[in-house]
Amino acid sequence: MAAEKIVVLVGSASDLPFAHRVEDFLSESRFSVKCEYRINSAHRNIDKLLNDLKSYEQSEESIVYITMAGLSDALSGVVAGNSQHPVIACPPDLEKHGLPKAYSTMMMPQGIAVSLVASPENAALAAVKILALTNSSLKDQIAEYMKKLKSTVAKTDADLRQKEEHEREREHIEQIEHTEHGEHDEHGDDL
Asked: 86, 65 in Cβ contact below 8 A?
């Protein structure tokens, strides 16, 4: 079986802090997938990008690319147009540029498939799910991750209900105390 790997391609070194959230998520979530980072630019050094892609294409590894490039998203389209592997675009400046940025990623020519995911953590999860299609161990890890998510939601809800019940009890006690205090005042006025 071929090894699985997520290759994170960033447009510049300034994108690395955003990009490292992929590996942080994989580690925190205990997904056993290798993650590799490369700096490539579809505008500034297309030859390096194409050479790196050629090297990955010749490997026997199962690869999912996560591309992270600011401004125009040529990187994602060039990678998708020159690779047989899935490409997930995760622009680091999506919040800053909004819909125009999203369109620069989504509006690819027919035959150039790029998926758009807003957060590095969700891009990493999507990549793991793609790789799990051919790896039952990863599939089990995803099932465990989903189980933890469900458990967290159930626990948070139970904590909230317990807090609400406690607050209702406290309010009831305060109401009783207020009522009793009011009755004492009434009796004190009669004397």
From this structure: yes
Tell me the fold of 4-134.
Answer: Rossmann fold (3.40.50)
Residue 115: CB partners within 8 Å, gap ≥ 6? 86, 87, 88, 89, 126
Rounded to an integer, what distance in angstroms lies between the CA atom of residue 41 and that of residue 76? 10
The model scores a pTM over 0.90: no
Positive or negative, the CA dihedral 33, 34, 37, 40 is negative
The Cα–Cα gap between 116 and 89 comes to 5
What pLDDT digit, counting tens, does each position of 27-81 carry?
A: 999 999 999 999 999 999 999 999 999 999 999 999 999 999 987 789 999 999 9
CA separation for the pair 44, 111 (Å, rounded): 24
| pLDDT (0 to 100) of residue 164 | 81
Q: Where are the domains of the chain?
A: 4-134, 139-191
pLDDT at 187: 55
SS3 104: helix
